[in-house]
Design goal:
With 912 residues, this protein is of the alpha+beta class. It has 30 helices and 30 strands. The longest helix has 31 residues, at 346-376.
């Protein structure tokens, strides 16, 4: 009995501990440490790589353990764009607008005009936005027939009349198989498409931003895979003529498409011998073989072949587009009027919005399922089970969504992220009041832009010793980015003397037209008293008189100095090859800007008076400057001379401004070096390399904007571009985005039983390398580089990250000290390929013009696979300058462009 009570007490204590978990402090601390450690790991990967799975895992843990000392709130807007939906939407055209310098290139290449036409980026998910939660639930219930939603109503062009003004070119017979509401890509010879692909691969790194070359190449691979062409290298050499048609831009896997081909030899057997029969539908229609992802699309192709009046072959709009595009083209991309009208119709936009909403939810839930697997080591039995265990709020679940046995989230109507149904397969009969109102709002805005006609889009493609893309888009919508551009440069192209006779050789050159008189008049409101504006309509002559009088008073001129008809119609901006991406010394800046003058003496009077007034406003010599960076120390510009040429210097404190005149232009720069090189260039007979001259032979004589880059003249600039591409800011930014996707794969691999196999079922795009960094999936997760550094040992903190971290100390605690730098993982062979890519690119030219056909843009660059000159493009005589009656540009705009170029040049280095 003596040992009974202690045993009973011990038993009671054990029972009490088992019933009350709080009395087991050691075990509770151990669990807390594991949860906190997992949360910190998630936070580190999400903040440093943008890992979507890590973000989802952090959200799950925070839901179950609200007291965790980690927050996901600051991470949402900096997640990697490479996710489970990569390759679905926005990879080709329209759904995402570029920012920064890439956005400016979109304007020059014409991509921005296509975006404005399609307006795909404005398709929002069909759900209430933030701040609109007070919407009547009844307004969200589909109850209105879609036929009652008024569609877009815009007239077609009078094609018959327009065809009288072009040299009509006959359409290829293959267009008899193209329904009018499909988008298509056509090549006369498959060999030309293969040459285009090969050329793009060689210059993919330098042109990745401009042409999205990597996405285009990846697209072809995915298309072949889905059509069952398992060996494209065997199939392609047998094909002569090739035509790709698609219902939509969501090629893979969200839409149906078809490939129509003719073979080089009639001896080629049936399609079943060349493709996997279970992957697509095949048929012989007329003289052509057709492969389609859909039996319905195949029948549609068969139907228009039987009735040519319903095909593109008889469409006058296509005849006009073919005739307006450069006749030397080898292929073309075409967005027909019916195709564009389909993409802006109520049925398409409402249905696409619904699908986007479902896909957003599917992706969020799919990542939650993966995160549950990483946290617990097991697949959830259902989505409800995740909610029951406290990891997910019940509101996250939506009707019609469930979980397959393999862990894939499925929607009853749209399918899964991996097998999304095309819009054409999901019927739409009823829409909600809210959907109808949103479409009507879109329609009102869209029709206010397109006031008269609505036009298709055509892109001609030529593959020779240059790769040449010619785009025509008409009309431009009101208030577009191009309308804003027109207000500065005018709506008429010219044969610019700065193109045919540049002042000096440069690595980069921008030549534009500018309508200075029109620009001043368009912005004349501030010069005209409100009382006069409100009372009467002021004529152009009266506006000019008021503006000139205002300038006379502001500058203290003894008499009126007419600012109109003073400027010419050309602006040139040049960047020399010795220019560095990092401007450490302004005296070494090899940048200049020049604009043409009609009346040089009048301009000299104006600039001298402006200088005098500025000096007086500063209080005279020795006065306190306006700012620490700008002051004037002389009453007039200082006169100097170099090799017999006079130039002037404005001593401005922080830096000096130099300018000089020749018989055509006034040039401004911020360095004596650039002045000297301008003078040296005046005496040279030729200022362009033979390669750049050859590239310009592909372009017309008249332009509104011409941007050229001649890498044979680049020197130091080229070396730094290669270095920056391989290991600079932009390389790091791309690496960070892709590492987010790879981190997701590694997390799931480490939690899976089949490390290398199971994640590939869910992450179907796992690159073999990221910009020269090899990738392997192991049982421990992700291995990077040739030596196999684990992702958890790589120092990711140096990579650009726009996340505002509210828990910086957490990142510092988890981040590996002295980790492997990302840049050190790049293979030497990749760095060599970058240098070779820049060398292969050689030179490039972008031309933009506003013509009678509409917006006309051309992109031309060296084709590294072809060296023999194409006989279709013969040498042209040098363009002659226009007469002195042309309108011109503004000094203020010139200075603004100069400042913008300087910012672009130094921005990359500052951000690294």
């Amino acid at each position: 009995m003596k040992n009974y009570k202690p045993s009973l007490a011990a038993a009671a204590a054990l029972l009490l501990c088992s019933l009350i978990p709080e009395l087991k402090p050691a075990a509770a601390q151990e669990v807390d440490r594991k949860v906190q450690s997992q949360a910190e790991k998630f936070y580190y990967l999400a903040s440093q790589t943008g890992s979507n799975l890590s973000y989802a895992g952090l959200k799950l843990l925070k839901t179950k353990y609200p007291s965790l000392n980690v927050s996901a709130d600051s991470l949402q807007h900096s997640l990697s764009p490479h996710s489970l939906r990569s390759g679905y939407f926005g990879e080709f055209l329209g759904s995402r607008r570029s920012a920064g310098f890439d956005g400016e290139l979109d304007i020059l290449t014409g991509k921005r005009a296509v975006d404005e036409t399609l307006q795909l980026h404005s398709i929002d998910p069909a759900e209430p936005r933030w701040g609109q939660q007070n919407i009547n639930p009844a307004d969200l219930v589909p109850s209105i027939p879609v036929s009652e939603v008024e569609p877009l109503k815009i007239r077609s062009h009078p094609w018959n009349e327009m065809l009288k003004h072009v040299t009509v070119q006959k359409q290829p017979e293959i267009f008899k198989l193209v329904p009018r509401d499909l988008f298509f890509v056509y090549f006369k010879e498959m060999d030309k498409l293969s040459q285009l692909e090969g050329g793009l691969k060689r210059v993919a790194v330098p042109l990745s931003s401009m042409l999205n070359a990597s996405s285009v190449l990846n697209l072809k691979q995915q298309v072949c895979k889905r059509l069952g062409i398992e060996k494209p290298e065997v199939f392609e050499p047998l094909v002569k003529e090739a035509l790709f048609v698609s219902e939509d831009f969501d090629f893979y896997p969200g839409t149906h498409f078809a490939l129509i081909v003719s073979f080089k030899s009639p001896l080629v057997g049936s399609l079943t011998e060349l493709v996997a029969s279970d992957k697509s539908y095949a048929a012989q229609i007329g003289n052509y073989a057709v492969l389609s992802t859909s039996e319905k699309l195949l029948e549609s192709i068969r139907a228009v072949h039987a009735d040519p009046q319903k095909s593109m072959e008889t469409a006058e709009e296509l005849t006009y587009a073919i005739s307006a595009l450069d006749p030397r083209k080898d292929g073309m991309v075409y967005l027909s009027e019916d195709f564009i009208l389909k993409l802006v119709s109520p049925r398409y936009r409402i249905q696409a919005a619904r699908r986007n909403a479902v896909l957003n939810k599917l992706e969020a839930l799919q990542y939650s399922v993966f995160a549950y697997k990483v946290i617990t080591g097991e697949w959830p039995k259902s989505l409800e089970a995740i909610v029951e265990q406290g990891y997910l709020d019940k509101q996250a679940l939506v009707g019609g969504v469930g979980l397959d046995e393999g862990g894939i989230v499925r929607h009853a109507e749209w399918g899964t992220l991996y097998e999304v149904k095309p819009l054409s397969e999901v019927p739409l009969t009823l829409v909600s009041k809210r959907e109808k109102e949103r479409y009507e709002a879109f329609l009102g805005g869209y029709q206010s832009f397109w006031r008269e006609f609505f036009d298709p889009v055509g892109v001609g493609i030529t593959v020779s010793d240059r790769l040449y893309f010619h785009t025509i888009i008409l009309p431009l919508i009101d208030h577009s980015d191009y309308r804003g551009l027109m207000s500065f440069i005018g709506a008429r192209p010219y044969a610019l003397s700065a193109v045919s006779n540049p002042p000096r050789a440069t690595a980069v050159s921008l030549v534009t037209t500018l309508d200075m008189d029109g620009f001043i008049l368009d912005n004349a409101q501030s010069f005209i008293p409100r009382s006069e504006r409100d009372v009467k309509e002021i004529s152009v002559a009266e506006k000019k008189a008021l503006i000139n009088e205002k300038i006379k008073l502001n500058l203290g001129l003894p008499e009126v100095l007419d600012v109109f008809d003073m400027f010419g119609n050309e602006l040139i901006l040049g960047v020399g090859g010795s220019q560095s991406l990092e401007i450490t010394n302004l005296a070494d800046a090899d940048i200049f800007i020049g604009f043409a003058l009609k009346d040089q003496e009048r301009f000299k009077k104006l600039i001298n008076q402006v200088y005098k007034v500025a000096f007086q406003n500063m209080g005279g010599r020795g006065a306190t400057p306006i700012s620490p960076f700008f002051s004037l120390s002389s009453e007039e510009p200082l006169k100097n001379e170099y090799k017999g040429h006079t130039f002037y210097m404005i001593p401005a404190g922080f830096t000096n401004l130099f300018f000089m005149y020749d018989e055509r232009f006034v040039y401004f720069t911020i360095s004596q070096l650039a002045i000297n090189k301008l003078v040296d260039g005046f005496d040279k007979k030729s200022s362009r390399s033979p390669a750049m001259h050859r590239t310009l032979e592909y372009l017309p004589e008249k332009h509104n904007v011409l941007l050229t880059a001649d890498l044979s003249e680049a020197g130091r600039l080229k070396e730094e571009l290669i270095s920056t591409t391989a290991s600079g800011y932009y390389f790091d930014k791309l690496t960070r985005d892709l590492l987010g996707y790879v981190a997701d794969v590694g997390l799931l691999a480490a939690a899976s039983d089949e490390a290398a196999g199971e994640p590939s079922k869910y992450f179907r795009w796992v690159p073999a390398e990221i910009h020269g960094i090899q990738i392997r999936i192991t049982e421990e997760g992700v291995s990077l580089g040739e030596k196999g550094a684990a992702l958890t040992t790589v120092d990711l903190k140096a990579l650009p990250n726009i996340t505002y971290r509210i828990n910086q100390e957490v990142v510092e605690r988890v981040a590996p000290k002295g980790g492997v730098p990302v840049r050190s993982l790049v293979s030497p062979s990749f760095k060599d390929s970058i240098a070779k890519g820049w060398g292969d690119l050689g030179n490039i030219a972008l031309s933009l013009a506003f013509t009678e056909h509409g917006l006309d843009t051309k992109v031309v660059f060296s084709n590294p696979l072809v060296t023999e000159p194409d006989e279709r493009f013969e040498c042209k005589p040098a363009a002659s300058p226009e007469s002195g009656t042309d309108k011109m540009l503004a000094l203020g705009i010139a200075a603004l462009i100069l400042a913008g170029i300087v910012i672009v040049l130094i921005r990359g280095r500052r951000q690294r």
